[in-house]
Amino acid sequence: MTDGPIGVGTRFLARWKGAPSAIEVTCLEFERPRRWVHDNGGPIAVTFTGTVEPAEGGSRLSVRFDARPHGWFRLLFPAFLVMARRQEKANMTHLREALERGRRDA
Length: 106
Prior knowledge:
Shape: globular
Strand order of the largest sheet: 1-2-3-4-5
Number of strands: 5
Distance between the termini: 34 Å
Radius of gyration: 16 Å
């Protein structure tokens, strides 16, 4: 949605598996390549923070997912958390595997 390189104020549309429509996401912080913070609205407002730090033998990715339900979605929020944790764990597993494959191929 926003032209130019990624940075504070950049906006884009994201669609999560099972979501009925895309949600607008805004970059709140961006310190390439170490830290980024994105926020979205919708029935569940989410602030996502990613941090990459040096670690023995490579790097460590840490993520924080702060979700705030609004309106009727508060009733579904406990089930949403279970689903979101499961999906995020799978996402991080896929990311780790892709990075490890890339390291072996290099």
